TrEMBL record:
Homodimer. It comes from the Bacteria. Belongs to the NAD(P)-dependent epimerase/dehydratase family. This is UDP-glucose 4-epimerase. Its EC number is 5.1.3.2. The keyword NAD applies. Its cofactor is NAD(+).
Length: 326
C-alpha cells in the first residue's frame, strides 16, 4: 500500500510527506514544481515531475508504485489571482482534478484525500461554520475547490472509491524540527508577509481593510499549524482505511484572530517593530471565518501546536533559516 502525494513539493504537501516519513512510510510525490521546490522533497522519497492532469502518466505511476491512496494537494491557491484569472483556476484546480479522478478510477485507487478550503464557505454570517453550513464561495478559487468536492462525492457514489475532503482554514507555521516551511516566492499569506516585513525583507506591509464588522475592523481567521494539519491527514486516511466511511471535515482550531492581532503577535515574537500601512479591502475576502472542528476532534485529532505564538515562532525560525541555506 503506497500513498501518492500530489503537490508534495509545496508547503502543506511537503509537511504531509514528512508526517508519513516520521511514522516509517515512504510516499511517492508528483509535482510540476510550478510553485513547489524539488529541494523540499527528502532524497529517499520517489519524485515524479509531471502534471496531475496527465491521466496516462498518473496511470503509469499508480501501477508502478501500487498506489492505494492519493492525497491531492496540487493546486493554485491565491484568491485575488483567481479573481483576475478564473479560467486558470478552473483548469488547474477543477479540470485537472477531474483528470486525476479518472486515472484513480481506472487504476482502482481505493482512497482519495482532498485538500479543500474554508474558502468554500464564502462569507458566512455566523460565528463558526460546520460541515453542514451551505457553501457559497466568494472567489473562483473557492468555487474551483467546491466543484472538485462535488466530483469527488459523485465518483465515490458511482465507482465505490472512498474519500475524505479536508477543508483547511488558514494554514501557517513550519515544521517544528525546521525541515520544511513555506518557501513560495511572492507569497501572499498574512503570517508569511508579516514575518518577511519583520525581517526587513519587505519595507512595509499592508492591512487590507479596517471597516469589517469585526471587533477591531480587520478580518478574522482561524490559523492552523501546518504540522497539526499534516497529522490530520494521517488520522483521516487511517480512519478511512479502517471503516471505509467517506467524510468532509473542517480543519481549524475553532478560534479566530484578527489581522491586527496577528501583526502584533509577529511584532512580539520577532521582537521588532515594522511599518504597517492601512490599505483598501482586498477583493474576495470574507470578514470572519472560524471552524467548528467537532467532527475532526471526534475522530481523535489532538492538535499540539495551536498557540499563535508557537505558529509565529516556527514560521519565523523557518524564514531565518532560508537565508542561511541560500
Ligand atoms: N495555504 C493555505 O492556507 C491553504 C488553505 C486551504 C487550502 N489549501 C490547499 O492546500 C493545498 C496545498 O496548498 P499549499 O499552501 O501547500 O500551496 P503550494 O503552492 O505550496 O503547493 C501546491 C503544490 O502543487 C504543485 N502543483 C500545482 N499545480 C500542479 C499541477 N497541475 N500538477 C502538479 N503539481 C502541481 C505546486 O508546484 C506546489 O508544489 C492546495 O490544494 C490548497 O488549495 C491551502
Ligand atoms: O499582506 C497581507 C496579507 C493578508 N492580509 C489579510 O489577512 C487575512 C488572511 O489573508 P491570507 O492571504 O493569509 O489568507 P486568506 O484568508 O485569503 O486565504 C487562505 O485561506 C483560505 C482558507 O480560509 C484559502 O484556502 C487560501 O488558499 C489561503 O490563501 C485576509 O483578511 C487578508 O486580507 C493582509 O491584511 N495583508
Amino acid at each position: 500500500m503506497t500513498v501518492l502525494i500530489t503537490g508534495g513539493a509545496g508547503y502543506i504537501g511537503g509537511h504531509a510527506v514528512l508526517a508519513f516519513l516520521d511514522r516509517g512510510e515512504t510516499p511517492v510525490v508528483l509535482d510540476d514544481l510550478s510553485t513547489g521546490s524539488r529541494s523540499a522533497i527528502p532524497s529517499e522519497v520517489p519524485f515524479i515531475f509531471g502534471d496531475v492532469g496527465d491521466t496516462s502518466l498518473l496511470l503509469q505511476i499508480i501501477e508502478a508504485h501500487k498506489i492505494d491512496a492519493i492525497l491531492h494537494f496540487a493546486a493554485k491557491i491565491v484568491v485575488p489571482e483567481s479573481i483576475a484569472d478564473p479560467l486558470a483556476y478552473y483548469l488547474n484546480n477543477t479540470a485537472k482534478t477531474r483528470a486525476l479522478l479518472e486515472a484513480a478510477v481506472k487504476g482502482k485507487v481505493r482512497y482519495f484525500v482532498f485538500s479543500s478550503t474554508a474558502a468554500v464557505y464564502g462569507n458566512p454570517n455566523r460565528a463558526t461554520v460546520n460541515e453542514e453550513t451551505v457553501p457559497a464561495p466568494l472567489s473562483p478559487y473557492g468555487m474551483s475547490k467546491l466543484m472538485s468536492e462535488f466530483m469527488i462525492r459523485d465518483v465515490s457514489a458511482a465507482y465505490g472509491q472512498k474519500h475524505v475532503i479536508l477543508r483547511y482554514f488558514n494554514v501557517a507555521g513550519a515544521d517544528p524540527k525546521g525541515r520544511h516551511g513555506q518557501s513560495t516566492a511572492n507569497a501572499t499569506h498574512l503570517i508569511k508577509v508579516a514575518i518577511e516585513t519583520a525581517l526587513g525583507r519587505r519595507p512595509f506591509m499592508n492591512i487590507f481593510g479596517n471597516d469589517y464588522p469585526t471587533p477591531d475592523g480587520t478580518c478574522v481567521r482561524d490559523y492552523v499549524h501546518v504540522s497539526d494539519l499534516a497529522y490530520a491527514h494521517l488520522l483521516a486516511l487511517d480512519q478511512l482505511r479502517l471503516d471505509g466511511v467517506s467524510r468532509t471535515l473542517n480543519c481549524g482550531y475553532g478560534r479566530g484572530y484578527s489581522v491586527r492581532e496577528v501583526v502584533e503577535a509577529v511584532r512580539r515574537v520577532a521582537g521588532t517593530n515594522f511599518e504597517v500601512r492601512q490599505a483598501p479591502r482586498r477583493p474576495g475576502d470574507p470578514a470572519s471565518i472560524i471552524a467548528s472542528n467537532d467532527q475532526l476532534v471526534r475522530l481523535g485529532w489532538k492538535p499540539e501546536l495551536h498557540d499563535l505564538s508557537v505558529i509565529v515562532q516556527h514560521a519565523l525560525a523557518w524564514e531565518k533559516s532560508c537565508v542561511i541555506r541560500v
